[in-house]
Amino acid sequence: MSPPLIFALCPLLLCIVWHVFRRLYLSFALHNVPGPPSDSFTAGNLARLHGPDNASFHEHLEKDFNGVVRIHALLGNSQLYISDPVALHSVLIKDRECYEASSIFLSLSELLFGKGLLSTTGHEHRRYRKIMMPAFSASNLREMVPILYEVAYRLRDGLIQPQLKHCRKGKQEVDFYPILSRASLESIGRAALGHSFDSLSCTESATIQIDPYVQALKSFTPIIHKLAAFLPLLPIACKVVSPAFCRRALRFLPSKTIAVFCDIIDIMETKSRALVQDKMQKVRSDHNDDSRDVMSSWVKNMKAEEENMKFTEDELVAHASMIIHAGTDTTSSALNRIIHVLALNPEVQTKLRAEIMQTKELMSYDDLVGLPYLDAVVRETLRLYPPVTGMTRTSTQPHTLPLSPTHHRGTEIYISIIGVNRNEAVWGPDAREFRPERWRNGYGQAAPEGANVRTAGVYGNMMTFAGGGRSCIGFKFVPLQLKVVISVLLRRYKFSIDGIDDRIIEWKMGSPAEPKVDGCSALPIVVEALEHCSP
Question: Residues that bind heme, according to the entry (predicted)?
Answer without folding.
Answer: 472
